[in-house]
Amino acid sequence: MRGPGALGARIMLRLAETPYAALMRLRNALYAANWKRVHDVGRPVISVGNITAGGVGKTPMVAWLAGALRNRGYRPAILMRGYGAGSNKGAKSDEAAELDAVLDGAKTWRIPVYASPNRVASAANALRNHPEIDLFLLDDGFQHRRVGRAFDLLLIDATAPFGFGHVHPRGLLREPLSGLARASTLVLTRSDLVDDPSIAEIRKTIRQYNAEAPIHTARHAIRGLRSSDLPAADPPDIPIASLANRKIYTVAGIGNPRALGFQLDT
User: Fold this and answer.
1) Residues 62-110: tens digit of each pLDDT
2) Interatomic CA distance for residues 51 and 152, integer angstroms
């Protein structure tokens, strides 16, 4: 957008961005200096998070990790913020309900999902109810630094990696890019939707702030469709090929619907 109105809006957003970025830098510095307390929740914690607003694929990654850890004999539990649960006591957020359904494979361990803004208290509650828990997965935990963690897995959406280079409200960054230094490992999601030079440029930017953490790539693949009468934990029972030459309508409730791979009419 151009013109005086657009210029004025950019100036106002820049004025708002400066104190927000400064506060985030100060907050991170206080944690780094141990002036803000980091809580040990009694079990090792793997944090899965991102550095920008919007969907990068955290929920599928948390579900995949939880299932993989369970298959290896661990007894994980998931701690999440729980956005969208509403005011009803005991109501689950959309993401919590999704994880609970997807991971309801019983097997040797039914993975508990705890949703609360206070994830320190949530971890204590989880251990009271399930003392056999041996590790926690912290969903959307990169900026939630009150909970100590053994490992920070940072997801970056390759189609929109760095929030236009600005923090809120001017851009989509949750914190300045210097926060990349905290990542133990990074995964570039939706990497199949961009070309190799774009991936190389993202890696170059990451290396300006984090010289050592491994960088992996991932893609979101639609494996098939599931009948509505089947449990969400069941594998798909309808092949994608069955949609060929048919007119379909899709409704997406995720942060970045372009990742579905459907071309939508505008």
Assistant:
1) 999 999 999 999 999 999 987 544 434 444 555 666 676 666 655 678 8
2) 12
Q: Which stretch of DSSP H or E encloses residue 158?
A: none
- Which residue type, as a one-letter code, is found at position 53? A
141 by Cβ neighbours in 10 Å (0-12 / 13-18 / 19+) ranks as buried
DSSP string covering 103-149, please?
A: T---TT----EEE-S-HHHHHHHHHHH-TT--EEEEET-SS-TTB--
Residue 39 CA to residue 175 CA, distance in Å, equals: 21
- Give dist(CA 115, CA 92) in Å, integer: 7
Could you tell me the CA-to-CA distances from 236 to 70, 95, 105, 218 in Å, in that order?
Answer: 21, 20, 14, 21
Q: Return d(Cα 139, Cα 119) in angstroms, integer.
A: 10
**Global pTM value:** 0.83
Helix, strand, or coil (residue 14): helix
